[in-house]
Amino acid sequence: MKKTLKIFLILNFVFFTAIGLRGEHIVSGVMYYEYLGQGSAVNTNLYQITLRLFTDCNIDKTIEGNVDIGVYKGSPGNFSFVLKKTAFLGGTPFNSDFSGSCSALLRNVCVGAATYVTNIELPETSGNYLIAYQRCCRNMTISNILDPGRTGSTILMEITPESFRAKNSSPKFDSNLPIVACINEPLLLDLGGSDAENDSVAFELCAPLTGGGPRGSGGTSGDPNDCLGITPNPQNCVPALKEVSFAGNFKLNSPFPSITPILISNRRLQATPNTLGQYTFGICVKEYRNGILMSVQRRDIQINFSACNITIKAAIQSATVQNNVATLTHCDRLLPFKITNLSTDTTYIKKVNWEFTGPKGNQIVSDSFHFTKILSDTGVYTGKMVLNRGNQCSDSIMLQIMVGQKINSDISTLLPLD
User: Fold this and answer.
1) How far apart are CA 267 and CA 173, in angstroms?
2) Does the predicted TM-score (pTM) go above 0.85?
């Protein structure tokens, strides 16, 4: 049976509960702001800040009920702390579990999403405002950066003085990018988003940023709120704006293997990935009005490339097949009976289930690759072998075993089928 996996989006909803601190689960994230009106004082603006955070729910299906966001002012390399705000969950967190997809035959993929919201009042300033969330750590299975399990992430955006004076809102990103995509097939990521003022929005590849470190996570000593901890304290830890270290020949403009150049055009990223794996990369979003830079958002993205055209075929040795039923005979009920599994492609066969009902109604099951059991009753056993049950890439074969009673060393009898 041939099954095809296409690009998957986050679809299935489940509730999350609050959790203590844990590292090794950041997948991706994006932040945006909306102008709500004048603040409580002269020359102040009130903004709603939204952080959309995606985490690996294979490691833990729970998620923090709130997160701390830092606000800084200045310019790159010279930002200073302004304030810390706690953002709380807004809406219903949910997760997408791909355990039933073909991609799960190579890597378990489960991604949870949560949205955090807070309001911030800011006074006018001559420099940029930098709003950032820092968290460690990333998935250890990421293919294109060094030491991913000890490398954190910084999700950020900048509000320029021009944006402040214009009472501007940044581009908004509330749709979900794909989690899994196919190798050797064209990839088209709609980076999309919407802008309330219809400003010009430019997208470009950029390197993801690090953030925090592994201190204070499970099995690692230290203060989790340290600047090298899994949840850096925004007041003490001005974002270093340090880019991740790419592995091998990967770099910001070629963060994953592709047959064709990785390009961004008309808000869409185009490529043809050709290597299995899990890859992270960044998208820098720049908003312009009349040629003047209004805001910058740095989006952190992770995607899994999987084999999609997978062929699974159930087959066994030495069977007579009639009407889609494979029939075997066994001449001595006192000896173990073995069925040799010849199914293909074994690379993608992760689970085998044998199920039989005996002549007296008894149930016989096995989850070994080959079947070996003593069938103690004479008569007909009916059942099936199932490959990758519950997965899109699965197959099965119906089976019938005729078990006879051995009379002596030379003669045995087989009961008729009817």
Assistant:
1) 12
2) no
User: Do the Cβ atoms of 50 and 80 come closer than 8 Å?
Assistant: no
CA distance 335 to 193: 67
Calculate the CA 205 to chain-centre distance.
20
Tally the C-alpha atoms within 13 A of residue 276's C-alpha that lie toward its C-beta: 10
Identify the three-state secondary structure at position 243. strand
Both tokens of 416, joined, read 């008729």
Q: In this structure, what are the phi and psi dihedrals at residue 161, rounded to the nearest 5 degrees? A: -55, -35
Alpha helices in 128-247 (DSSP H): 161-165
Task: Give the model's pLDDT for residue 97.
Answer: 53
Strand positions, DSSP E, 149-275: 153-159, 180-182, 187-190, 200-206, 263-265, 268-271
| N-term to C-term CA, the chain | 32
Rounded distance, CA 393 to CA 67, Å? 39
The first and second tokens of residue 220, run together, are 């690692």
Q: What is the largest CA-CA distance in the chain?
A: 105
Mean pLDDT of 312-339: 88
Range picked from 103-112, 198-207, 325-334, 382-391 for highest mean pLDDT: 198-207
Cα–Cα distance between 107 and 350 in angstroms, integer?
11
- Quote the DSSP letter at residue 77: T
Q: What are the start-end ranges of the E strands in 331-368?
A: 336-339, 352-357, 363-366
> Mean pLDDT, to the nearest integer, of 337-351?
91
Its sign, for the CA torsion 334, 369, 100, 141, is positive
pLDDT mean over 282-300: 97
Half-sphere exposure (Cβ direction) of 231: Cα atoms closer than 13 Å: 16
Q: What's the pLDDT at 11? A: 36
Question: Can you tell me the distance from the alpha carbon of 341 to that of 368, in angstroms, rounded to the nearest whole number?
Answer: 10
Cβ contacts of residue 28 below 8 Å, gap of 6+? Answer: 54, 177, 280, 299, 300, 301, 302
